[in-house]
Amino acid sequence: MAVKTLTIDGQQYSAQEGESILSVARQHKIPIPTLCNLEGLSTVGACRLCVVQIEGIPKLLPACTTKVEEGMVVQTSNVKLNKYRRMIIALLASEGNHVCAVCVANNHCELQDLAYQVGLIRVRYPYLYPKKTLDATHKEYVMDHNRCVLCTRCVRVCDEVEGAHVWDVAGRGINCEIVTGLDANWGNSETCTSCGKCVMVCPTGALFEKGANISEMEKKKGFLKYIITARQKKEWVYIAND
Predict the structure, then answer these.
(1) In the chain, which residue ranges form alpha helices assigned H by DSSP?
(2) The last residue of a domain, from among 61, 77, 93
């Protein structure tokens, strides 16, 4: 496989042909924010937070789906990118019902962490206050659509890792929503194995365990690396969560 040389934030790096900019950046500890991307799951480029600026290309491109090219010059952080990322976080905040003080994922929420990182002080867009539902029909878990950011991590981990495909995406635009089966109650799903993988990969408080108190719902994604290592290398070795 051919080796490509590219420049990221003024430093030269080598990468394998077919690797994404995000993958190379993570290997070299270069921080690029993302919500939808998670190691071990397929790449969808849904959140657009990982956009980077590439010399010679007028538009911003998502680092997770853009493959490295020989001589590519990439900027991962500048005034334009930071402004754009703040706008995305602000739009996510305004389109949902995110009230951190009463959320079980408070202080363990990736959306909350990213808001701090990008310096989001206030939301200048009008809040939509959508009338979203809460599905508590499952015996162990709850889906709160008010806090869902449509990252589709739950959809992908259920399909690609657990193999159950309980979740899917329905609707369009502002009416887009994660659904169980053909928009049935989660508790009535015949395919759900109650494994909890979807809950653990959710970046916000949209999916949580019943009985979890405010600020107690810490997500643990280390199991993904464990499963991937086991399947690919036949090594059943525990890998601690990052």
Answers:
(1) 21-27, 79-95, 110-117, 153-156, 197-201, 222-233
(2) 77
**pTM (predicted TM-score):** 0.90
CA distance 50 to 72: 17
User: pLDDT for 2-34, tens place per residue?
Assistant: 899 999 999 999 999 999 999 999 999 999 999
Integer CA distances (angstroms), 4 to 7, 29, 61, 64, 83, in order? 10, 19, 19, 17, 30
- State which residues form the domain around 183: 83-233
Kindly state whether residues 120 and 196 are assigned to the same domain.
Answer: yes
The token pair that represents 226 in the structure block: 């464990």
Q: Is 181 a member of any domain?
A: yes
CA distance 56 to 224: 37
CATH of the domain at 194: 3.30.70.20
What single DSSP character describes residue 139? S
| 108-144: burial string, b at 16+ Cβ within 10 Å, e else | bbbbbebbeebebeebeeeeeeeeeeebeebeebbbb
Q: Does one domain contain both 89 and 59?
A: no
